[in-house]
Amino acid sequence: MTIATPTRRALLRDVPAGVWALGSVSLLMDLSSEMIHALLPVYLLTVMGASPLTIGAFEGVAESTASTAKVLSGALSDRLGKRKLLAAVGYGVAAFTRLIFPLAPTIGWLMAARFIDRIGKGVRGAPRDALVADTSPPDLRGASFGLRQSLDTIGSFLGPLAATALMWATANDFLAVFWAAAVPAFMALGLILAAVHEPNRPTDRRPEGKVWGRVEVRRLGAMTWWVVAVAAGLTLARFSEAFLVLRGLSIGLSPALTPAVLVVMNVAYSLSALPVGILSDRIGRVTILIVGLLLLTVADVVLTLATGIVGVGVGVALWGLHMGFTQGVLATLIADSAPSNLRGTAFGVLHLVTGVATLLASVIAGALWDVAGPGGAFLAGASFAALSLLALLPVRNKLDEIGPLSEALTVKTFCS
User: Fold this and answer.
1) What is the residue range of 64's domain?
2) Predicted model pTM
3) 53: which of 131, 187, 236, 366 fits an S-S bond (Cβ 3.0–4.6 Å)?
4) Which helix (H) or strand (E) holds 267?
């Protein structure tokens, strides 16, 4: 006798409407973000005169700022039980910040705009992910996170495409593209206000007390902290995508065409995120993570050795595939392992730790790029990825214990 398995189309029909709405909001905001992000490293280098080290620090500080905000907003969403409110505030901050980029006269102003934009990302990130977890049934959680990540990433490759088209249409007018990026950002804000609804969680709210403290650290449970540790190691091996854009510039791409680098990366990311999420519900999360780390190692080696556009394109595509194999799966592991009334806190901790790791990785990559060129930065990334893979193997059995039915386990079991 054979057991029928649901098709991908049937699975997508079962994913809650709220997840589709949140994914569409993410799509629009990432479209806006990537229109700016795809051009900002080139703008800083060619117009503002910044060095690769400055750009690495710039990106690292921006991302770590977002991660610090995420831990606070995630914990606050657990306390208030109002995840949509905090997510909408974050999207609103990001939308209004878009108006600063075309007006910024100096690197300092651009850094301030990026800083505020990342605060908005930080405020919305953990509550949004917790909303996905709250809304999704456990047996569809991997598919739900994969879908949201896939829609998010569609915006991530449409953004660079739009930036490239606008740069061509405006004769390389960076500021015109920055102005245009505000439009989808305000559309995202309107959509979350109109189409996303707060799930009923009357008995699931955190008890009164500190927003964040030692009690919350203990209550997250050992398995959640294992996931956070694995995510930190992986993030140390992966620096900002700004260096992918600079790698394209280094092999002779014109400023107008450098956004195509992120298009290639995000197409690979988007196409892989949903099927990988569905697969992780069936065969387990850890095997998927191991494949992701192998892909990152190979991507860094290819980008180290590349001498032309084909080599860079292959390396960037592999980089995007590794994102599809890791980001949604890590989020799903957090949702599986954390107590339901501390999910916002757990996602906040994940983003905080990975944000600090991103800062370190980006500064190291920038310094190596200044000293040894692109090859030095990407070879270091390959080394970190290989070390992360070796560190993952000893805890594989522990992480395999986490699955869709883990909500039946108690926090006491995790801590024993």
Assistant:
1) 18-197+212-415
2) 0.65
3) 366
4) helix 259-283
